């Protein structure tokens, strides 16, 4: 019996990967923070800050997170997000960059697609696409938003193939030194309600 797409106790087998939900387990979160740093080549000095941020995010309303382990046992990828709510740090940063009409359209019933990271050894194998689809398949929101660096062509290409659109380009969401794209995706076409 082929195991492709096989579900077992919240886990899904996809090729050489086992994809499963993650939550607040400290060992899981530390491994995810390590993956984040390997993937994005951040300075090790801020690893504790990333771990604290990920830990905080797991407690947010509507949190959904998936981790993918390769059959060799290595954590190969992770994706997570949560319900966007007024008062959240990033939600307020996004809202400040958008005209009121766009903020209402994109943020009123929104899932924030926060992180999609794949270890360099496992890139270009479809893992990011599978994590993306599983994550968005678990939300009940009308829209999803994300940000990515304006020069992150692989991510922008993946998101464009998945139906994301650029809401605003070259935006200093966090700082003037780090311009980003704000991208959005309608998740339930029957509930868009664009008047």
From TrEMBL:
<dbReference type="InterPro" id="IPR016181">
    <property type="entry name" value="Acyl_CoA_acyltransferase"/>
</dbReference>
<keyword id="KW-0012">Acyltransferase</keyword>
<feature type="domain" description="N-acetyltransferase">
    <location>
        <begin position="17"/>
        <end position="188"/>
    </location>
</feature>
<dbReference type="GO" id="GO:0016746">
    <property type="term" value="F:acyltransferase activity"/>
</dbReference>
<dbReference type="Pfam" id="PF00583">
    <property type="entry name" value="Acetyltransf_1"/>
</dbReference>
<dbReference type="InterPro" id="IPR000182">
    <property type="entry name" value="GNAT_dom"/>
</dbReference>
<protein>
    <submittedName>
        <fullName>GNAT family N-acetyltransferase</fullName>
        <ecNumber>2.3.1.-</ecNumber>
    </submittedName>
</protein>
<keyword id="KW-0808">Transferase</keyword>
